[in-house]
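Review form for a predicted model. The reviewer records the input and the model, then writes brief findings.
Reviewer: anonymous (R2)
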Amino acid sequence: MTSILSLKGSKKLLNAWAFYDWANSVYSLVISSAIFPIFYGALFRVAEIEKVTVFGGEIARAPLISYVTSAAFVFIAIITPLISGVADYLGNKKIFLKFFCYLGAVSCVGLYWFSLENIYFGLACYFFGLVGFWVSFAINNSYLPDIAYPEQQDGISAKGFSLGYIGSVLLLLFNLSMVMFPKFYGLEDSAGNPAEMKAMKISFATVGIWWALFSQYTFKHLPKGYKREGERRNIILNGFKELQGVWKQLGTEIKLKRYLGAFFVYSMAVQTVMLIATYFGEEEVDWGSDDFRTIGLIASILIIQVIAIAGAYLTAFLSKKYGNIKTLIWVNLVWVFLCVYAYFVITPTDFFIAAGLVGIVMGGIQALSRSTYSKFLPETTDTTSFFSFYDVAEKIGIVIGTLMYGAVAQVTGSMRNSTIFLGLFFLIGVFLLLRVNKKPQLKS
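Model under review:
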């Protein structure tokens, strides 16, 4: 504990923490947002099929990956409290950060062998890649109040996201050059395996290598964590008991409880947008050709990432001037406008404009949400449990958001209607945020 307190606020420690975003953000960009969705769709198009026999029945490509994604987030929501409980009692959450980092990195390398013939192996790699990314991300988030003072948290949180955007853009540019000019890299077409597809597979491996390699700087400087005092009973299930304890404590932490309610609603929409944006662009935008579709989708993701760097710092600046809650309210209102605009997106130009606007608010809302939660925490050394609660709430929201988005799209027959549906979540988030700073009414 002494070592953490003595280092708290130091530049080296803050930079080491923020640098993990540089290491792992390549997953969220290359795998979740950019190349894997394109690769996954192309895999079925090359095979000239829309359904695959898996899990005892025929399932279309879109529902299949959606079900695996939802299952992964259910697993993440369950395992995070378990990890929290064990980490608190061992006083070593860094070992879990390492484990899930390496799990995710190895899974990304495994995606190199993703094929319809090896569909179970490929889906397993996709599943554990999600698990590795999100659980390690949650553990790293829990370090924030340990390593930074309240006045530092907005800035270093924004710096982390910005580093992530910069690093992931650099790797995506390299991957994009392979996809666009595979022959330059010695990649040739073969039967049922175009050179572009080979380049995408190599991209997955580069993500795993990048992630594992650059995380070493974070591992070197981050402390192990706080060790829980007292007897070590029910270590495995203790994480769930701690979540229950956090829930009870929220009864006296009115601002924190109100903020968490708002966060749960709008984060549900933010994460859903991030997960389905590329699929929306692939299906709803008239690209004209398959080649332009690939380049256009990746270019739009690059636009989002580059603009998001400035967006994260802009949001941090506005929060310093106007306060976190007011800034989050305005950011959510921009998201409402974006959801309505997305309904009318048809041409590539429309989609690029939407991508630019998303970039402005995407990084800002994530960074500011993380630091706002950290600021509202009561005085405690049990930061892992509080951030575990935060993470579980976010993941449950993702499961609900993605399932409801898919249901609306399926019932109405269009993904466009789902964007309006997401806009309602942001609007509700605005109303809930307006309540955060209101003084609680005294009971008569």
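Findings: Residues 11-47 form the longest helix (37 residues).
Further findings: The two ends are 44 Å apart (CA to CA).
Recommendation: see findings above.
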